[in-house]
Amino acid sequence: MGQLLSTFEVSDEYLEKVCPPIYKATGWEHAAFLLDGKDTLIDTPRLNSCLKVCCWSNKMKASAIRYLSWSAHRGFYNNSASITKKC
Predict the structure, then answer these.
(1) How many helices (H) and strands (E) does the chain have?
(2) Which of 29, 59, 63, 73 has the least CB density, counted as fewest CB within 10 Å?
(3) What are the per-10-residue average pLDDT scores of the chain (87 residues)?
(4) Which residues contact 56 (CB under 8 A, 6 or more apart)?
(5) What SS3 class is residue 9?
(6) In 3-state terms, what secondary structure has residue 60?
(7) Where do the domains of the chain lie?
(8) Phi, psi angles (nearest 5°) of residue 14
(9) 25 half-sphere exposure, CB direction, 13 A CA radius
């Protein structure tokens, strides 16, 4: 899907037409996408010290997994699988 979207040809006229008014009002009309990340607390992994370090979240001050989602013009969106931040 990512390769399809990266080669998806979109004209400037189309993007101007479908750009949400809130993007224009806030000066984000040239933004490719908006990214949001959410950390969810997990039990600290104790079997592997590398995994324990990778799961540390400075935001939560504990072990957590980060979920990323992005949205773009005209409703393109993606909800990623959970990831650890340092791997």
Answers:
(1) 4, 4
(2) 59
(3) 63 79 82 82 91 89 87 64 54
(4) 62, 63, 64, 85, 86
(5) coil
(6) coil
(7) 2-79
(8) -65, -45
(9) 3
